[in-house]
Write a structure and sequence with these properties.
Helices cover 37% and strands 28% of the residues. It is an alpha+beta fold. It has 2 domains: 227 residues, 3-Layer(bba) Sandwich (FAD/NAD(P)-binding domain); 122 residues, 2-Layer Sandwich (D-Amino Acid Oxidase, Chain A, domain 2). The strands form 4 sheets. It has an 8-stranded mixed sheet. A 6-stranded mixed sheet has the order 8-2-1-12-19-18. Strands 3-7-4 form a 3-stranded antiparallel sheet. Strand 15 and strand 16 form a beta hairpin. 45% of the residues are buried.
Length: 388
C-alpha cells in the first residue's frame, strides 16, 4: 500500500489530522491497534478550548458538537466555602470553552472519515516504523495473520503514551521529562444533573474535588485520593458522601446522586519528550506529552499538534516548502510547555500535597490573591480558554 501520510493511532489526534488532510486532498492511512468499539469506549476529557472548537469546525466534524455542546462563559473556583467566578468572555475578548466529551469528538471524526474514501485499519497488530530518517519511510503491520507494508512520505505518531512511535526513536536521540504526582483522581460518571451550570474547582482541606458535566443530564465528578487507593474500597455511597463533603455548601445542597455508569482511579503525571520530530516522523498528542487533567489541556494540546502538523504538510504538498515541517517541534513545544506549566500550577493550587502548614497557607494566600486581582483572574482565563 502507498500513501502520502501514514498515521499511527485512531484517537482524536490521528482522526483530526486525517480528516484535515483528506479534506485538503492529501492521501493518508490510519492504523489502529484496537477495535473501533474499544476506541469509542474510552472515557476521557470533555472541555474544548476555543481553538479546538474552531479546528473541529474546519475539519467538518462539528455539526453535532454545535448542537449538543454546552458553551461555558466562565467557571468557578471555590475555597473556604466561597465562590470566585472566572468570566472567560470578559477577560479574553469573548473566548469561551465548550463541554463536549472526547468520546463524542472521536465518534464525530470517525463518522466524518467513514464518509470519505480514506482508509482506516483497525486491529493492526505488531505495528513497526522503518526508515523514517530516509526519503522512503515504511510502516509494517499484521492483520488476519498476514504482514502488510505501507510506503509513505511521512509518519505521524498519534498512538498515545504506550504506542510504538516514540519507542521507535533511539534513546540517545530523545529527552523525556516526567513528574508523577502523589495522588490520583477518583472519577464517577452518572446520569444526574450537574450541581451547577458551570464547572466547579473546589479546594478542600482534605483534598480537591471537581464538578464537571457531559450534558445537562450527565455529570462527571472527581475527588482527589491517595495514589495507592483501590477502586474496590470506594462503593458508590462512599464516593457521593465524600464528594458532597468537599463541595461548598451552596453546591452540596443541590447534589443529586444516582447509579454510577463508570468509576475509575486515574494517576496524575506530567510528561514531555523533546524533540517531537525525527526527520520524517512526527509525534503528536499523548505520544509526545501528557498533562494532569486539572488544566483540561490534554485533548486540546493534541488538537493543536494535529492542526500544526496539517498546516506544515499542506505547505509541503501545496507549495513545496518545508519551513513549517522543520519548525514543527519547536512550534508545538512552545505551546506544550506553557500548557504544562498551567496544568501543574492548577494542580498545585487546588490539591492537598502534604500536611505542611506552610504549604497550606501559601495555597490560601494565592487563592486570596486571585479574589482581588483582575490580572490574576485574566491569567487563569486566558490559559483555560487556550493560548493561540
Amino acid at each position: 500500500m502507498n500513501t502520502q501520510v501514514a498515521i499511527i493511532g485512531s484517537g482524536p489526534t490521528g482522526l483530526l489530522l486525517g480528516q484535515l488532510l483528506t479534506n485538503q486532498g492529501i492521501n493518508n492511512v490510519i492504523l489502529e491497534a484496537k477495535t473501533k468499539d474499544y476506541v469509542l469506549g474510552r472515557i476521557r476529557a470533555g472541555v474544548l478550548e476555543q481553538c479546538t472548537i474552531d479546528v473541529l469546525r474546519e475539519a467538518g466534524a462539528s455539526e453535532r458538537m454545535d448542537k449538543e455542546g454546552l458553551v461555558h462563559n466562565g467557571f468557578n473556583l471555590c475555597f473556604n466555602n466561597r465562590y470566585l467566578r472566572i468570566p472567560f468572555t470578559q477577560l479574553t475578548d469573548g473566548k469561551v470553552v465548550m463541554i463536549y466529551g472526547q468520546t463524542e469528538v472521536t465518534r464525530d471524526l470517525m463518522e466524518a472519515r467513514e464518509g470519505t474514501a480514506a482508509t482506516t485499519v483497525y486491529e493492526a497488530a505488531n505495528v513497526q516504523l522503518h526508515d523514517y530518517t530516509s526519503d522512503s519511510p515504511r510502516v509494517t503491520y499484521e492483520k488476519d495473520g498476514e504482514k502488510h507494508t505501507i510506503d509513505c512520505d511521512f509518519i505521524a505518531g498519534c498512538d498515545g503514551f504506550h504506542g510504538p512511535s516514540r519507542k521507535s526513536v533511539p534513546a540517545d536521540e530523545i529527552t523525556e521529562y516526567e513528574y508523577e504526582y502523589p495522588f490520583g483522581w477518583l472519577g464517577l460518571l452518572a446520569d444526574v444533573p450537574p450541581v451547577d451550570d458551570e464547572v466547579i474547582y473546589s479546594h478542600h482541606e482534605d483534598g480537591f474535588a471537581l464538578s464537571s458535566m457531559r450534558s445537562k443530564t450527565r455529570s462527571r465528578y472527581y475527588i482527589q485520593v491517595p495514589i495507592d487507593e483501590k477502586i474496590e474500597d470506594w462503593p458508590e455511597e462512599r464516593f457521593w458522601k465524600e464528594f458532597q463533603r468537599r463541595l461548598p455548601a451552596e453546591a452540596a445542597a443541590k447534589l443529586v446522586t444516582g447509579p454510577a455508569l463508570e468509576m475509575s482511579i486515574a494517576p496524575l503525571r506530567s510528561f514531555i519528550c523533546e524533540p517531537m520530530q525525527f526527520s520524517r516522523l512526527f509525534l503528536a498528542g499523548d505520544s509526545a506529552h501528557i498533562v494532569p487533567p486539572t488544566g483540561a489541556k490534554g485533548l486540546n494540546l493534541a488538537a493543536g499538534d494535529a492542526k500544526t502538523l496539517f498546516e506544515a504538510l499542506k505547505l509541503h504538498y501545496g507549495e513545496g516548502k518545508d519551513d513549517l515541517l522543520n519548525s514543527y517541534s519547536d512550534d508545538c513545544l512552545d505551546r506544550v510547555w506553557k500548557a504544562s506549566r498551567f496544568s501543574w500550577w492548577m494542580t498545585t493550587l487546588f490539591h492537598k500535597f502534604s500536611e505542611n502548614p506552610f504549604n497550606r497557607k501559601i495555597q490560601q494566600a494565592e487563592l486570596e490573591y486571585l479574589v482581588g486581582s483582575k490580572a490574576g483572574q485574566t491569567t487563569i482565563a486566558e490559559n483555560f480558554v487556550g493560548l493561540d
